[in-house]
Amino acid sequence: MAGGLGALLRGRSRPLGRVAFGLRKWKSSVSVQAKMPPCDFVPEKYQSYTYEHMLKIRERNVFPSLLTYYKKPLLLHQGYMQWLFDYEGRRYLDLFAGIVTVSVGHCHPKVTVATQKQLARLWHTTNIYMHPSIQEYAEKLTSLLPDPLKVVYLTNSGSEANDLAMFLARIYTHNFDIICFRGGYHGGSPYTLGVTSLGPYKHGVANGFGSSATMLPDVFRGPWGGSRCRDSPVQTIRKCSCSEGVCQAKDQYIEQFKDTLNTCVPKTIAGFIAEPIQGVNGTVQYPKSFLKEAYQLVRERGGVCIADEVQTGFGRTGSHFWGFQTHDVVPDIVTMAKGIGNGFPMGAVVTTKEIASSLAQTLHFNTFGGNPVACVAGAAVLDAIEEDGLQKNSEEVGTYMLLELAKLRDKFEIVGDVRGKGLMIGIEMVTNKESCHPLPDEEISQIWEDCKDMGVLIGRGGLHRQTFRIKPPMCITKKDADFAVEVFRTALERHMERTAEK
Q: Is the pTM higher than 0.85?
């Protein structure tokens, strides 16, 4: 591996006297395993097919494109708040939340009870009739957004919401071209695949007509970046010579954005879509004030600005309820899903009355959007966020965890970057901090497997899957964070020991 053991150990706070070079093993505390915080919940006894039979069904009857995590896929049976239990009753701290979807906790009592009551009352009508839950939820959801974002269209997923947002932008502006960021993920439908700019998600079929990807303003891996660029308690290790109130990296990336406007699209465009923090690409944050200037440039070209809040919304960033608020902007269209229903399949598009009216010129219908059960689940999620203080908890626990993980970045050469805001955290793994080359997949995978074996589930992201993604249910505690950080530290030390043995 590039840099060797010396590079791996560079910058560690552990005294070098405890490190044996050459063929001798590095003495570590990997035999000491972190103690999992207690949990009073007792799962039901698993009574379905055997693990082996479940594997056979998966291989025979489920699309092979639906990949599973880990060498030995988990067979999960039950969940409670931040905890998951497998078929053998083993408990895991869930730091990925069903891919950033379980916002208030698995089987949260408030959401469960509200949903059960609605199931006994009315499962389904369509939007051709009124029922109390859709109007009540529309009012409750839009009250959390600034003027003039007060009109909602309910969908079934984030891909569907982004699909509709792009459609709306084109109908409203009478323009076609949409700009997106490289590295962005906005869905896998034929329409949204054009603005999903990650190679592994691209298939060998025509896509992207009318979509132009511009340079990602990534202050860690991109050509420009410094030590004060991003809105996070943890900055990059890159040096910064900017004076107070000036960000040279932001200015350079804005010039690239202007270049895209001047060379890749017509004089008028339909819009620009971006996540406030990129999720699938590994919690990538932009320089402060970048989105504000980009929005102005888009509007000067007649386009609308779409904020994809599928992962950043509903208090996850801690300081604000919506990710776009951290950039001091107001979009023209906001899309949301995932945490909106705590796992219930729903999504939404919120926009202005004027933009929404453009869709009313012809018929546009959704059978399941605004389903009574979905609306009740969504309303209960909003209540739980407020009553349980989960936005504040995201800020406090997330900041605490980021700062603790930053200590590991300073200690281990292979931890290149720790970033994020609230409970949306990325840990980018590198061969060494000088080159910042992605750590080989087989090495990252072993660290990942070790964390799972010690009871912590985390995600993967980035173009090379080089970034660990931590986006847990927002109910986790500081004790959970301590446990997770200790598990990750132990996994890193095990990696060090394996490397020293080579």
A: yes
